[in-house]
Task: structure prediction
Amino acid sequence: MLGTIIKDLKNIFGQFIYYFVLMVVFMAVSVITENIYYYMGAIVFFCVAVPLSALAYDEKDNWDKFALASGVTRNQLAVSRYLLGLVIFLPMWAISFILVLAGGMWDIENLSVLLSYGGIALLTLDAVLPVIFKIGVEKGRIIYIFTILIVIALGALLGFLVETIGGASVLYSSVAVLALGVVGFFLSLKIACNIYKKKDF
Result:
């Protein structure tokens, strides 16, 4: 399973450099404007875009069929996709805390943003991956775009709530969103494993 993740990272290395440059730009914008929303929105996009790119390569090359013939189980294939998402998400999310601290932006409102966007990123991953496994990458891109539009709307709503309400109530809500993302991750993984069990390659 580790080999599958390494293979995915090698396949998308060229795109990864492009993503990295974009992330640096979003980091700089967030620090200069003292607005962490730019970087957090990028996290939501990239933590799904990278696994999606890897899946597109696999679908094109019929990798899953080869992997199964090589002894990789269906569950391992499903789990490796989710782990790839975490490999992208967790470091980027950790960096967001460093940015807020280093940029002198640490307060309860920005902490709420970090936690809630962490949950939103996980929920996006939770929603998109099973759909991709079921209908394929090309058709799934439409769902992904639609999901990103929903995330943008939620982000705007979150910004409004943070500005107007603030305080502990928003922080508690952000923790709830993060918890929902974590619980949804395992539920989504279970659904994905069931899809893989029935999938023809």
About this structure: The chain has one domain: 2-198. Residues 2-198 form one domain. The helical segments are 2-11, 13-33, 37-61, 63-69, 74-102, 108-135, 137-164, 167-198. The two ends are 18 Å apart (CA to CA).
